[in-house]
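PROTEIN DESIGN WORKSHEET
SECTION A - STRUCTURE
LENGTH: 361
C-ALPHA CELLS:
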C-alpha cells in the first residue's frame, strides 16, 4: 500500500495538470476565435420594389493614439535664407513686318525698229522681165533695167527689143514718161506707143510727129553719168557696209516705184533672204564720181525685216530713225570766276577759255 501510493499520487498529479492544460487550451482557442472579425451577413434586398436611397454612414475619425513626444533640445536658429532671385523675362519685340513687295515695273517697250506697209500683188508689179506691148497688143520686148536721178526720180527704162527667134535682140533706152503700167494684167503689164523701129533704129514713118521724137529708142552708151542704175546694183548702208543687191523694182499703176527688192545674200551677213525696202527711203549719192544707192538701215533693222515672197502680200519696210540724243550743255562758269577775271589779263584768260571750251556742233 505504501509502495503504490506515491505512484497513484503521481498519476493523479499529471492528470490534473493535463486537464488544466486542456482547459487552458480550450479557453485559448475560444478567445482566439473572438479575435477574427465577424462578417455580418449580406442583407437581402428585394429589387422588385424601389428602395429608398441609403444614407451614407458617417465614420468618425479615430483619434490618434497619444504618443509620448520626446523632448528635444531647442534647435539652433538658422540663418535666414536669401530670397531667391526673381527671373525677369523681358518680352521680345515682335519682328518688324516684312516690307511690302516692290512692284517691278515692266521694262519700257523698246521703240520699233521698222515701219511696215502692206501692198498686194495686184497693186504693184516687178519691173524686171515684164513684157512691153504696143497699143495694138503686140509684145515688142521686155523691161530689163531702169535709171534714176539724184533725187530718186525714175528717168530712163532699158528695154530689150525682141528680134526673130532671139536673133537681133538689142537693148535700148526709152524715157520713163512714155510708159503706162497696169500691174493687174498678167500679160504685158507695160504699154507704150512708139514708132515701129527699123533696122537702123529710125522710124518707118517718113514724117515723125514731134511728140514721137522723145519716144524714140536711144543707145545705152548715151546714159548720163548723173543717173544711177538700179537692177543688179549694190546697196550700201549709211556706215558704208554692203546691204545687198537690187534684184527688182516694184511699180504701181501710176508708174511710181514703191519698193526695191534687195537680195541680202550679197550682204556682209550673207543672209539668204530678200526684203522689200521703201522706195522713198532710197538715197542716190555720189562716191568717187559714181552714183551709188544707199539705204539707212542698221544691222538690227535688216535682221528684223520680214522676208519678201512673191506668193504672199508684200511687206514694204522703212527704217525707224531714233530721236537724236540731247547734247550735254556745258556747265555755266561760277560767278566768282567772272569777278576774278575782271583784273588785268582777263581778256587773254577769256580767249583761252573760249578755245578750251568745246564748240557745240
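SECTION B - SEQUENCE
RESIDUE ASSIGNMENT:
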Amino acid at each position: 500500500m505504501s509502495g503504490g501510493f506515491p505512484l497513484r499520487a503521481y498519476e493523479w498529479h499529471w492528470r490534473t495538470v493535463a486537464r488544466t492544460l486542456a482547459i487552458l487550451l480550450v479557453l485559448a482557442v475560444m478567445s482566439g476565435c473572438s479575435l477574427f472579425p465577424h462578417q455580418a451577413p449580406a442583407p437581402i434586398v428585394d429589387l422588385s420594389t424601389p428602395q429608398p436611397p441609403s444614407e451614407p454612414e458617417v465614420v468618425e475619425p479615430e483619434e490618434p493614439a497619444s504618443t509620448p513626444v520626446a523632448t528635444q533640445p531647442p534647435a539652433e536658429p538658422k540663418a535666414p535664407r536669401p530670397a531667391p532671385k526673381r527671373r525677369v523675362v523681358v518680352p521680345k519685340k515682335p519682328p518688324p513686318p516684312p516690307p511690302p513687295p516692290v512692284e517691278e515695273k515692266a521694262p519700257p517697250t523698246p521703240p520699233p525698229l521698222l515701219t511696215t506697209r502692206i501692198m498686194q500683188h495686184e497693186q504693184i508689179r516687178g519691173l524686171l522681165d515684164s513684157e512691153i506691148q504696143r497699143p495694138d497688143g503686140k509684145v515688142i520686148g521686155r523691161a530689163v533695167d531702169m535709171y534714176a536721178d539724184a533725187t530718186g526720180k525714175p528717168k530712163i527704162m532699158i528695154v530689150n527689143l525682141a528680134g526673130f527667134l532671139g536673133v537681133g535682140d538689142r537693148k535700148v533706152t526709152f524715157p520713163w514718161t512714155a510708159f503706162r503700167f497696169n500691174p493687174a494684167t498678167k500679160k504685158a503689164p507695160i504699154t507704150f506707143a512708139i514708132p515701129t523701129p527699123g533696122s537702123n533704129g529710125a522710124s518707118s514713118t517718113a514724117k515723125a510727129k514731134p511728140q514721137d521724137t522723145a519716144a524714140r529708142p536711144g543707145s545705152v552708151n548715151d546714159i548720163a553719168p548723173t543717173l544711177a542704175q538700179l537692177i543688179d546694183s549694190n546697196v550700201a548702208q549709211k556706215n558704208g557696209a554692203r546691204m545687198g543687191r537690187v534684184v527688182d523694182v516694184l511699180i504701181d499703176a501710176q508708174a511710181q516705184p514703191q519698193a526695191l527688192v534687195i537680195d541680202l545674200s550679197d550682204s556682209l551677213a550673207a543672209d539668204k533672204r530678200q526684203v522689200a525696202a521703201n522706195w522713198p527711203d532710197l538715197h542716190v549719192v555720189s562716191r568717187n564720181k559714181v552714183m551709188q544707192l544707199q539705204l539707212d538701215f542698221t544691222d538690227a533693222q535688216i535682221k528684223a525685216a520680214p522676208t519678201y515672197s512673191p506668193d504672199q502680200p508684200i511687206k514694204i519696210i522703212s527704217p525707224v530713225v531714233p530721236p537724236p540724243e540731247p547734247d550735254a550743255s556745258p556747265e555755266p562758269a561760277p560767278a566768282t570766276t567772272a569777278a576774278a577775271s575782271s583784273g588785268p589779263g582777263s581778256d587773254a584768260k577769256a580767249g583761252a577759255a573760249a578755245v578750251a571750251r568745246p564748240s557745240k556742233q
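SECTION C - NOTES
Residues 122 and 185 are 8 Å apart (CA to CA).
Helices lie at 5-33, 210-213, 299-304, 335-340, 346-356.
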